[in-house]
Specification:
44% helix, 18% strand, D-Maltodextrin-Binding Protein, domain 2, six-stranded mixed β-sheet, 2 domains, alpha/beta, single chain
């Protein structure tokens, strides 16, 4: 008897990452493990590359219940304001500190905010990594070099405020359309980790890579709460165990890709420089004050308990 005939639950998981990326590879392995451990009773179908629509649509579908699972990037700020804080520029210096925060008290607050909006968030996030800047017109040596540029960013208020602080404009197109938008010069550059620059072959449409490590980003595996609660407890335990296992493996995969990314991109022809990040920090006083007030002192202290003093 086929899996389709015996499966009691068949859910879809949507995300924007390339099919060949470590993220899709590990989530596909997670889905296979879940199917095997539930004897085919629960089937998870993985749809990468925004095949179920751009992130805003997938998130809306998740909330409405027409999509059961979604791997979210920087799309949660409107329903979970605390989720934006790990993206604060220069807040974290290494991934381990971010994971400690998101696996711990800061993540608990984010998960609570999501739960209040009908979304179940799994505890262990996946890694995207520290962002750097690629550009087509000129390299970014100091913050002043950003003035007048339009940068494709993951979206959200923090990205908008950050680039505005240096006279640049943050814009957004869906991840799956970024290559074409950069090729058409709709943007002067973009912000992403090195693994993304590699996987999207942005070396073909961007000339300069300026190493800034200006903020960290990751992915959160989400489920529609009603769909999650419809699963028997035994199946939930299988999903949670495998979500943690494959998130840990994905974190390691991405860490390795990003660690060697600059060298590989230089080999492929990109002009690589290390930016003066002190010039960025010097211009963020008002930015930090605004976001400290917006987050509230209690939440800010939770963030700093993992990241150290910010601003």
């Amino acid at each position: 008897m086929s899996t389709e005939q015996t499966s009691r639950f068949r859910y879809r998981l949507g995300l924007n990452q390339p099919a060949a990326s470590p993220t899709v590879k590990r989530l596909t392995e997670m889905a296979q493990a879940i199917g095997e451990e539930t004897d085919g009773e629960f089937v998870v179908e993985v749809f990468p590359e925004s095949r179920l629509g751009p992130d805003p649509k997938m998130f809306a579908d998740l909330r409405s219940g027409t999509l059961e699972f979604f791997t979210a990037g920087a799309t949660l700020g409107e329903v979970a304001p605390t989720s934006a804080l790990p993206l604060l520029p220069f807040a974290f210096r290494e991934s381990k500190a971010v994971f400690a925060a998101l696996d711990g008290a800061l993540g608990d607050q984010i998960r609570s905010e999501l739960a209040q909006n009908g979304i179940h968030a799994f505890r262990h996030c996946l890694q995207n990594g520290f962002h750097h800047l690629t550009t087509s017109a000129r390299p970014i040596h100091t913050a002043a070099d950003l003035a007048g540029l339009k940068i494709r960013s993951p979206g959200g208020a923090i990205a908008r405020d950050f680039f505005e602080a240096f006279g640049a404009q943050a814009g957004y197109v869906p991840f799956s359309q970024m290559y074409d938008a950069l090729k058409a010069r709709d943007f002067d550059g973009q912000s992403d980790p090195l693994g993304v620059v590699l996987s999207l072959h942005l070396v073909e449409v961007q000339t300069y890579l300026s190493l800034t490590a200006h903020w960290w980003s990751g992915f959160t595996l989400l489920a529609n709460t009603a769909a999650w609660r419809a699963l028997p407890q035994q199946i939930q335990q299988v999903v949670e165990r495998n979500a943690e296992k494959f998130a840990s493996l994905q974190r390691e995969d991405i860490e390795q890709v990003n660690a060697t990314g600059a060298e590989e991109l230089a080999r492929r022809g990109m002009q690589v420089n290390t930016a003066d990040t002190d010039s960025f920090r010097a211009g963020l006083g008002a930015f930090y004050a605004h976001w400290r007030e917006r987050a509230g002192l209690t939440t800010w202290r939770v963030l700093e308990s993992y990241a150290g003093e910010i601003g």
